[in-house]
Amino acid sequence: MQMSPNKIELKACRKTKFKKKTTYFLVGLIVVLGIAIVVFSLLLHRPAYYDPPDFVYSKELSPYLTHELLPQLYNGVQSQEPFDLYVSQEGINDVIARSKWPRESDGIRFSAPEVLFVPGGIVLIGAAAAGGMEFIVTVVAEPAFDQEGLLNMHLSKVKIGAMNITPLARVVAGRMYKRSFSAEDIDTKDLRTHIIASLLNNEPFDPVFEIEDKKVRAKKITISDGELIFHLTVVDE
Question: pTM for this one?
Fold first, then answer.
């Protein structure tokens, strides 16, 4: 039995539509897979500048801390005059390398951190492992003083691999802040607490800390390649 011209035309039209739909689907699938591959590659990217120190856990304090940094600080305080505290990138990483790693929080395992001092900013890089995969996370903080002398550790950039997730990270950080700082056992007088609040919630604080029976205030922070300088003054009681 021979098909009528109308039926043949209808069949051909359906075949053409099916081919078009199949083509669109395949093209869409290729695009989605391509985007997924690019995103995945960006997430797994390992920055060339990431070169963590050799980690050797030790109960003894770093010689840099005991022989260089603390003597600088104590001598400056005793002088009763404004002074500068020089902090080297290499020394800070030596202090970190002697701490106990990895550390785990909320199912995420953190390890191999490294601190970099770059003009105007402090960079913290480290490995974060979750779900059997490891990513390199980069966090950049830019310390700045306001007109009242309060210090804010502005969270300027957060990256996973080569992917910038700063807007999302700020939202997550704000939620972490609200969750953590709702606890009654948080010591709001602790300088470390203020630094965390500043990073997570963009809250400025008075940069005053105690050295024995003296109080010291940071008036300015200068950061160059490999070095951070605290410009300090002893607070009169």
Answer: 0.80
| Cis previous bond, 102, omega within 30 | yes
Strand partners, 205: 151
Running DSSP on this structure, what letter comes out for residue 59?
S
DSSP assignment of 71-133, as one string? HHHHHHHHHTS-EEEEEEHHHHHHHHHTS---EEETTEEEEEEEEEEETTEEEEEEEEEETTE
Tokens of residue 129, six digits = 């492992």
Per-residue model confidence as pLDDT tens digits over 52-63: 888 888 888 899
E strand or H helix at 52, and its extent? none
Beta bridge partners of 157: 140
Q: Give the angle 90-114-112 at the CA atoms, nearest 5°.
A: 125
User: In 3D, which of 189, 235, 183, 228 has the Cα closest to residue 211?
Assistant: 235
